[in-house]
Amino acid sequence: MMTDDQKSSYELLRRKPLWVRGIVLVLGFVLIALLFWYFLKGTPYPPISPKGEEAPPAQTQPSPKAPPDYRAAPTAPEESTALLKGQLQQVISEIREANQKKDLSKLLSYYSPNFPGLTQRTQSISKVWKIYDYPKIEFDLEDIKLLPDNTVLARVKWDAEAKNISTQKSNNVSKTYLIRFGKESGQWRIKALENVN
């Protein structure tokens, strides 16, 4: 027969696994909630076709219709690549300036009217600009390729400082895109882009 002390010890041992399981379950829920909050919080990316981010990949959200076979396009000859690079660098410089000055009409003038999701992009850029300033934005343009449809594909890497207007906290953001440019009305414009990192 068991004494009262033995019975209470036995009861404690029986309850402990259930209690331990309850703690593990609660900790699991807390961990999942923290991970969910962390991923939703995100880091701001400039609303320019450059660096993307949870809130600001706005201006540069990749086009869902950008064909993956662009990467296999032939590289342009050196002479035309140098000329194209200068012209495209000018476009990207203007996009950078439009982002820093928050000039939406200027920024959109460098997008093709046929850019997929342009209306949503415009709304997203406006929202991002209400939250972040971009005091510093730099870019590298490389791997310029001529495509058969008289468009140009280039890899553009953006490095930006995103500064939260209300908290004044800054984050550095880097993003690389494959951007397809087309000449419309004598000006190079972004027709599509694909996030490659």
Q: How would you explain this protein's 3D organization?
A:
It is a single chain. The chain is of the alpha+beta class. The protein has a domain at 68-195: Nuclear Transport Factor 2, Chain: A (Roll). The chain is built from 4 helices and 4 strands. It has helices at 4-41, 78-101, 104-108, 118-131; strands at 132-146, 151-164, 170-184, 187-195. A 4-stranded antiparallel beta sheet has the order 1-2-3-4. It starts with a helix and ends with a strand.
List keywords for this structure.
4 strands, Nuclear Transport Factor 2, Chain: A, alpha+beta
User: In the CATH classification, which architecture of the domain at 68-195 applies?
Assistant: Roll
Quick one: biggest sheet? 4 strands, antiparallel
Low-confidence stretches: 33-68
Radius of gyration in whole Å, from Cα?
26 Å
Shape: globular
Mean pLDDT: 74
Helix content: 40-55%
Helix-strand sequence: HHHHEEEE
| Number of E-type strands | 4
Structural classification: alpha+beta
